[in-house]
Each structure stands twice: as structure tokens, then as C-alpha cells.
Amino acid sequence: ELSIPIDGPVEEAFLARRIFVNVRISTEEARFVIRDEGPGFDVSSVPTSWAPGGLEKKGSRSLSLMRAFMDEVVYNEAGNEVTLVKRKEEEKTAEAPYGIDV
Q1: pTM (2 d.p.)
Q2: Which of 50, 46, 33, 41 is nearest to 14 (CA)?
């Protein structure tokens, strides 16, 4: 059982829901599938954090961080499950970080 501290007020309905996490790690990638028992949400309705007012919109920072750090972010149709994939990076020897020529 995984316990995560909750910061701030939480609706009682959320406390009774379970969250399911499936993790598969191989030599090529790490894959995380996270699903909750809620009704889900329309992912396209959440603005990116760089959109005007985006940082204030509930959930936009979390979604933007997932998109920024993961190679693949896929939601199910109901919006209550997300699959996150991070692939192994190829060895970089002679290339400067962020494409900057040295």
C-alpha cells in the first residue's frame, strides 16, 4: 500500500477512491499506467501552463510537467487513466547539451 501526503483541502469523495499504478521497467523504457476510479476529465480542456492563465488552471502544471519530461503521454477515452513512457536515451558523446555548438 502506498500512502501519499495530501496538501490542502480534499473533497471527501476523492478520499474513498482508489488509484491503480502499473509499472513496467525494461532496458529500453519505463512505462507507468495510472488509473483512478473517478469519472475522468477532458484532457483537451486543460490549457498548457504556458497559455494565458494556464498556471492558475487546476491540473495544468502537472499535465505540462508530464508532457515535458516523458517521451509519451497517452490518456484513455474516459480521461481517468494515463500511460507515461520514458525511453532510454542514446549515448551522447560529442554533442553539447540542448543543441548548443561549442
Answers
A1: 0.67
A2: 41
For the chain, the domain total comes to 1
Please name the residue that has the C-alpha cell 474513498.
16
What is the full DSSP assignment across 52-65? Answer: TTGGGSTTHHHHHH
Nearest to 77 by CA among 49, 28, 41: 41
pLDDT digits (tens, 9 = 90+) for 33-57: 999 988 888 877 766 655 566 556 5
Segments of 1-102 assigned E as strands: 19-25, 29-36, 72-75, 81-87
Tell me whether residue 101 is in a domain. no
CATH code: domain of residue 22: 3.30.565.10
**36 touches 19 (CB < 8 A):** yes
